[in-house]
Amino acid sequence: MPSRPLTPSPKPNAKTLLVHALRYPETAPAFTLPEWDLLIRQARHADLLGCLGALIKARGLLDQVALQPRQHLISALRVAGKIAQTARWEVQQVRTALAPLNAPVVILKGAAYTLMDLPIAPGRLFYDVDVMVPETSLAQAELLLKLHGWGSVKTSVYDQRYYRQWMHELPPMQHAARETMLDLHHNILPRTARFHPDAEQLLHSARAVGGDAQLRVLAPQDMVLHSATHLFHEGESRHALRDLFDLDGLLRHFGADAVFWSGLVQRAQQLELARPLYYALRYTQRIFATPIPPDVCASAHAGEPGRLTLALMDTLCARGFRTPHPSCNDWLTPAARFALYVRGHWLRMPLHRLIPHLVHQTFAPNSAD
Amino acid sequence: MTAPAQPMTIGDLSPAALRKTLAAGLRFRVGAFSIVARSSLPSVAEGIAAVYPDYPILENDAFIDFAVRVATPLGARAVVRPQVNFQFDGYQPFKPLPQAQAFPLLEWGLNWCAANHAHQYVISHAAVVEKSGRALILPGTPGSGKSTLCAALIQRGWRLLSDELTLTDPETGMVIPLPRPVSLKNQSIDVIRSFAPETVFSAAAYDTLKGTVAHLRAPRASIVRDSESALPAWLVFPKYQAEVTLQLTPLNRGQALVRLADNTFNYSVLGLTAFRTLGDLVRRCDCYDFTYSELDDAIQAFDALAETQR
Q1: ipTM
Q2: CA–CA separation, B301 and A290 (whole Å)
Q3: A residues 137-176 near B, CB within 8 Å?
Q4: Helix B146-153 to helix B187-195 angle, to the nearest 10 degrees?
Q5: Less packed terminus of chain B by CB within 10 Å, N or C?
Q6: B143 in the Ramachandran plot: left (φ > 0), alpha (ψ -120 to 50) or beta?
Q7: Contact B176, B229 (CB under 8 A)
Q8: pLDDT at A7
Q9: Least CB-CB distance to B119: which of A34, A37, A79?
Q10: Mind listing the pLDDT tens digit for each residue in A267-280?
């Protein structure tokens, strides 16, 4: 991983503690026990405890952390190790099940980072494997997965219809014996969303991984755009900071190669994803000081929203990207998180579909989200 | 004023002070874990007063491993058939339970915390007691009576390491003490009461998922020595069976390893590390199947084991 800037680190306060520790993991051994007490809890709530442990371990500093917090880091790293092992195995099982499919099988998000051994993979906690196939192969892929033991966990008629009619993925599947979760996608945004990335272009540029021609991951630019799209369309507050930290790590890793930056904005425009790219660059830079070439920043303005929208997003994101722990909340946090949740849904669905859906969600609990 | 030689323990608090401290957060240590427990429920304070008097209270700036809370959820359920929730730093891992089960819920919640957030250890579902630095591990297959055996052994000179969670350190192979109150169910409660009338129990909770449950106070000597780990020496799979003669049958180590792995909560999380740790553990141990009906006979048999030269 390229080293982080050697600017002197400002003293963190309770609200900035986790972001500070992620940006300057080399300062971790010097934290006091009360700081560690809060940091461990914040990192656990943000699902970043394993990542924090991995950052400190990668610098050879784990043994210098006080024993009690070190035990929590070790514990989370062991869970992450198990998750990575499971993900690799599940990908092999999916690959075997889908072998008859005459189409590429693209692994997305966490499992892809693991397969590629990206610097953000160690310690990362994730709970399902995301797979994408061409829409024309979706029915066959679903059938093959069912034959190999995966089945839908959403059984209500409403949920089944909701996913199949409007979403970019089938209802979540679970393996009957291993109980692992799988999401089968045909695109990276819902059919009903405001923007319509062309899935064929994503599939066309996807790259083979692990010396297997059928098994693929998205090209670096597309991987960043997918991560950004996911983050700025989901409105899922618990993982907002984690997903932004993923983006920071992806940009630092792929950004070491100048080829990555050239054409990034153009690619985003091709895929109708200039807006999420703009936000991704803006907020990674603000929160994690991600190094981004000035010319890329300049051309990314193509995706800038209107001034009012931007001011609103800045206000919401200032809270949305805070650590999801009570120690970091103020009286406006719930409102900001709710607004981001509604915004995510609004971008995913036009109002005449969204309102009935949210009403259904409210009165039929344990349903799709 | 001179500082007290011993740290303050929970028993040093008056009932009123305990209730007040618990409502704000009672910070105490059990073995390797530091806990802050919060609850405004009188039954939780009473349970803690009954079985936690000997645990040391921690300073306000101590690092806390598990911040837990037992509380009544808001809403109508607060009045009609009131319930309680267990929270781990805001998470709610379980569904709410009837309020009468508040104290057992705290105990089950603390088990959950250790079993899910302490993968620095291999965590097996087993009682473990110690004599002369050597640990006797009793894995808890259902109906085995491991907790009853454990409760009896600690009344007769064995030191309590844990009645429920055997923590093995992969670095050293040693068993780490977690001397919490011993959870007993149904008839076992009366069996131990008549076996050792001087024992102290928390108030029984009836009609729980496990039947009637009460917690037995851990011996003070076990709590005082909670930083002394022990080397595994005996791995014994107990089975209670009414009116049988006692049988201690040697068990081959391969079988013992497989059965212990089956009883290990985080075996799959630790993978190879767990296999190696438990492999070493089994190699160090004499392994037995054990059938018993009388506690006195059982204790005699274990005392005899402890006497043998190794």
Answers
A1: 0.92
A2: 66
A3: none
A4: 20
A5: N
A6: left
A7: yes
A8: 53
A9: A79
A10: 999 999 999 999 99
pLDDT value at residue B301: 95
Chain B closest CA to A234's CA: distance in Å?
22
- The model's confidence at residue A1, banded by pLDDT at 50, 70 and 90, is very low
Best of B29, B61, B63, B122 to substitute, by most chain A Cβ atoms within 10 angstroms, is: B63
Number of other residues whose CB lies within 10 A of the CB of residue A116: 18
Which of B90, B120, B271 is nearest residue A85 as measured by Cβ atoms? B271
Cα–Cα distance list, B255 to A353, B260, B262, B290 (Å):
59, 9, 11, 14
The pLDDT value given to residue A369: 44
> Which H or E element spans position A302?
none
Which of A8-17, A210-219, A309-318, B101-110 shows the lowest per-residue confidence on average (mean pLDDT)?
A8-17
| Cross-chain CB nearest to B64 (options A37, A71, A82) | A37
Residue of A33, A66, A68 with shortest CB distance to B61:
A33
The pLDDT score that the predictor gives to residue A339 is 76
Q: Name which of A136, A122, A154 is nearest A58 in CA terms.
A: A122
Residue B219 has φ and ψ, to the nearest 5°, of -60, 140
Show the domains of chain B with their CATH numbers. 10-117 (no CATH), 122-180+218-307 (3.90.228.20)
Residue A250 CB contacts under 8 Å (≥ 6 apart), including other chains: A118, A120, A220, A223, A224, A227
The encoded tokens of residue A251 equal 């940009």
* Interchain CB distance below 8 Å, A34 and B119: no
* Encoded amino acid at B283, one letter: R
d(CA A166, CA A369): 13
Question: For chain A, how long is the longest CA-to-CA vector?
Answer: 57
Mean pLDDT of B190-219: 90
Residue A282: which of A308, A302, A262 has the closest Cα? A302
Token duo for residue B122: 């291999």
- Distance in angstroms (rounded) separating the CA atoms of residues A107 and A129: 8
Cβ(B203)–Cβ(B46) under 8 Å?
yes
Contact A68 B67 (CB under 8 A): no
Task: Nearest by CB to A68, from B65, B266, B271: name it.
Answer: B65
- B61 and A34 within 8 Å at the Cβ level: the answer is yes
Residues on chain B touching A75 (C-beta within 8 angstroms): 117-120
pLDDT in tens, A94-125: 999 999 998 999 999 999 999 999 999 999 99
Quote the radius of gyration of chain A (alpha carbons, Å).
20
Q: What is the pLDDT of residue B58?
A: 96
Smallest CA-to-CA distance from B113 within B70, B142, B171 is with B70
List of chain B residues whose C-beta atoms are within 8 Å of the C-beta of residue A68: 34, 63, 65
DSSP code of residue A255: T
User: What is the rounded CA–CA span in Å between residue B31 and residue B222?
Assistant: 10
A238 touching B, CB under 8 A?
A: no
Number of CB pairs < 8 Å for A and B? 46
Residue B186 has pLDDT above 80, yes or no: yes
The length of chain A, given as a count of residues:
369
Segment B11-44, tens digit of pLDDT = 999 999 999 999 999 999 999 999 999 999 999 9
CA distance A216 to A210: 9
Share of chain B above pLDDT 70, in %: 95
